[in-house]
Amino acid sequence: xxxxxxxxxVLFALSFTVSFxxxxxxxxxxxxxxxxxxxxxxxxxxxxxxxxxxxxxxAAIGPAAKIKTPKGAQVIDVSGKTIMPGxxxxxxxxxxxxxxxxxxxxxxxxxxxxxxxxxxxxxVTSMMxxxxxxxxxxxxREEQRAGxxxxxxVFPADRGFGVPNALPPFKLAPDQMYRPATxxxxxxxxxxxAARHPAFLKxxxxxxxxxxxxMDPAVYKAVIDEGHKHKLKVAAHVFYLAxxxxxxxxxxxxxxxxxxxxxxxxxxxxxxxxxxxxYIPTLSVDQSFFYFADNANWRQxxxxxxxxxxxxxxxxxxxxxxxxxDANPIVAKCRAALAQAMKNYKTLNDAGVKLGFGTDSGAAxxxxxxxxxxxxxxxxxxxxxxxxxxxxxxxxGETAKLIGIKDRGTLQKGKRADLVxxxxxxxDNIGNTKTLLVIYHDGRKITPRASAPAVAQxxxxxxxxxxxxxxxxxAVGPIEDVCE
Length: 484
Ligand SMILES: [Zn+2]
Fold this sequence. Notes:
The protein is an alpha/beta fold. The chain has 16 helices and 18 strands. Strands 1, 2, 3, 4, 5, 16, 17 and 18 form an eight-stranded mixed sheet that branches. A five-stranded parallel sheet has the order 11-12-13-14-15, with helices on both faces. It has a three-stranded parallel sheet with strand order 6-9-10. The model is unreliable at about 5-20 and about 470-480 (pLDDT under 50).
């Protein structure tokens, strides 16, 4: 009997150790002292600030003069450093790519966890996997909620709703995508998805360069309406202005890519503002088609290289990669699409439309690099004439609002301790978000996968001129959809 008790106690102790391996010690108190704090609300930074972390939460935050150091706390001097919230991507993907190839068997627990760990190690502490999720994602979500599993916190948008024999043209597992043919079938499948309590729903409204049949508006209207009945918000893959207008009229909650065929107009802006529709530009999507061909110096970029598998490096190192990319007529259109996307982004930001953050990282082709893409996207956002403070606010506090997660996104008392400590100030140059020193996620200390050297203060951005300059490099005309 006694032996049995001892065995039970040992088992209990072991399970305790295993269970809490990925949870912060609830009583541990850490004080980060002396940093500049960007809190994710859009307010100006707090200079010489203090953050008190207790367990997985922020117990206190403010200027050093106003915050007391609790007795027994571990105090870390971070004078001269900058702290900002962990990044949140509301449009990324898991389990689409494996070793640089898009394949139907890529969505495994191991591959998904590799990506979630990579996001976390680049300071992306939460991510919404915006569609093509197999059901195993819900086990991962439960284990993360229980503190048994690490990696970026995942918010799954379930399988997603595509079109039979059309978009998305991915090779997918049977439990990875719905393709309803009728509004009735769409409603039934939304109810099936709702039973899994996803964070969001996703629809694809696009014709892939005129190659495919677009989703019947009656089908997407049914998904949106039935989703809302189950208190689920709906994000749409979109490319064309006309589709965006119809989706907004049909109450879609998020346009999850840029409009890239035409300039956005007042009709769309007024409708989005009236309905409170969010817009995620994913500028990195269009750039991903030519980034590695244009930037031969990616080989010297250690911050980027640390995110690439040997198989992905081999693809970009292929002697023919650049010539093939440059000769591809689709790539020329993606350059034009990026220019149009950047112009539209500036217009929508100036107009006060609600903007969220996302990159499509993790999707095909292999140039959409989890973790690195998010830092790259911030640079593209600032290149449209936005301030670094605005870009950081969108990528943290605003995107938490978009997803509907109130416990994170800003550095405020009672919120989760999801933050990054940077060697250099990203308000001087947005490239400094890459100067990662340490990451806290749910109060757990995470060692960055890589860290870039500080970059000098940049000149004030010329605003609209920056976009014009960028656009001048490409011919912008009506753009057919190729860049998804
Ligand atoms: Zn996507």
